[in-house]
């Protein structure tokens, strides 16, 4: 069903990511695409105009309704769409209730740390016919978009993504975790119980990009190096390092290597996509495809300049803005095909990273994702 602009929208969770979305929504409201109706957060200080305006230029509450009571607001305030940007471990049925009310949903990832909970979300979204997307904004980044176009007719054999970062790189969040039994410094992204591990909290981005380029993941194997208890500060207990292998239905192999070390203050990364006859790299001056196009075999080994091809890129865009524009376009036209990640599709990026956690717990056992979702032997892992 099509909806006339402006689309009435609310935001649940005015933390770091919620504020980034609100900044975009504030811009889209000036364009007449949306009308911001309500802002909801468990903590009233996150709803103060003075605080929000530090992150959103020119922001004024005006007639925007603020509340710390989600379910009460859902019953009393008419909305067309809601953004959810809350920690994945503390959902309490908000997305399910919104779907049942026929409200379109933008859910930040990870959507949950519990498979039964996210499956219930997906089922209610589908049965109530609402449009829903997951915040995988990197699919709207011009570099990754160019890679997807280029690789669409290639046989990808391996994707490797490495990110070495630091525990200190996590920023202080806005959720009062110290009042909910969480980290006293509010850096919940470094805590396993709250974030679900670095693979789930951050690596889900890389995994979703792998799926964007190579399709469905069939299985996962993982081994983590757990953090020593003597090296845990302020609840930052996520593992030191992670090695995860993904097997795709197409036969592609994906490698994800992550680390979060303390007392290092240095980060680096490496990304490589291999297809049967070439490499694709993300380099400082663009996306470079390395492959030979001349007569084969060549008379002599081609130079780097001969085999390096920069892919054409669309103009630089704000990916967070672009995913919101796509979301509202889908709502306005009633056509979710414009979305690059529906909730039902994005759910499988979450299944893959949660499967990595399970594999590590089972000493690196290969976990098939369809079995993870359905077999009774994994019910203990799926439940909240």
From TrEMBL:
Stored Pfam families: GFO_IDH_MocA (PF01408), GFO_IDH_MocA_C3 (PF22725)
UniProt-recorded Gene Ontology molecular function terms: nucleotide binding
Domain Gfo/Idh/MocA-like oxidoreductase N-terminal: 7-136
InterPro entries: Gfo/Idh/MocA-like_OxRdtase_N, Gfo/Idh/MocA_Oxidoreductases, GFO_IDH_MocA-like_dom, NAD(P)-bd_dom_sf
Domain GFO/IDH/MocA-like oxidoreductase: 179-278
Database matches in Gene3D superfamilies: Dihydrodipicolinate Reductase, domain 2 (3.30.360.10), NAD(P)-binding Rossmann-like Domain (3.40.50.720)
Entry protein name: Gfo/Idh/MocA-like oxidoreductase N-terminal domain-containing protein
Organism: marine metagenome
């Amino acid at each position: 069903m099509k909806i006339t602009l402006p689309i009435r929208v609310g935001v649940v969770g005015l933390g770091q990511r919620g504020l980034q979305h609100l900044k975009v929504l504030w811009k889209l409201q000036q364009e007449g695409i949306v009308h911001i109706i309500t802002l909801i957060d468990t903590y009233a200080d996150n709803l103060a105009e003075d605080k929000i305006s530090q992150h959103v230029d020119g922001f004024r509450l005006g007639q925007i309704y603020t509340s710390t009571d989600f379910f009460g607001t859902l019953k009393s305030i008419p909305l067309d769409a809601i953004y959810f940007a809350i920690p994945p471990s503390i959902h309490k049925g908000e997305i399910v209730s919104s779907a049942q009310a026929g409200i379109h949903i933008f859910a930040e990832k990870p959507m949950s740390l519990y498979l039964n909970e996210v499956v219930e979300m997906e089922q209610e979204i589908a049965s109530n016919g609402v449009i829903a997307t997951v915040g995988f904004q990197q699919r709207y980044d011009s570099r990754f978009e160019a890679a997807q176009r280029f690789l669409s007719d290639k046989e990808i054999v391996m994707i490797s993504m490495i990110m070495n970062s630091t525990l200190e790189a996590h920023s202080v969040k806005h959720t009062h975790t110290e009042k909910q039994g969480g980290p006293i410094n509010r850096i919940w992204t470094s805590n396993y119980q709250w974030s679900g591990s670095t693979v789930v909290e951050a690596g889900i981005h890389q995994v979703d990009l792998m799926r964007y380029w190579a399709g469905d993941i069939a299985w996962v194997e993982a081994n983590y190096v757990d953090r020593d208890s003597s090296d845990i500060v302020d609840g930052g207990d996520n593992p030191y390092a992670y090695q995860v292998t993904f097997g795709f239905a197409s036969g592609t192999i994906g490698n994800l290597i992550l680390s979060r070390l303390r007392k290092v203050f240095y980060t680096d990364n490496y990304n490589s996509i291999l297809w049967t006859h070439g490499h694709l790299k993300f380099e400082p001056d663009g996306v470079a495809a390395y492959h030979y196009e001349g007569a084969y075999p060549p008379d002599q080994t081609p130079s780097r300049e001969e085999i390096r091809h920069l892919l054409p890129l669309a103009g630089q865009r704000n990916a967070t803005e672009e995913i919101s524009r796509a979301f509202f376009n889908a709502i306005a036209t009633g056509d979710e095909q414009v979305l690059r990640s529906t909730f039902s599709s994005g759910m499988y990026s979450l299944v893959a990273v949660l499967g990595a956690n399970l594999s590590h717990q089972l000493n690196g056992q290969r976990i098939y994702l369809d079995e993870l979702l359905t077999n009774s032997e994994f019910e203990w892992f799926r439940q909240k």
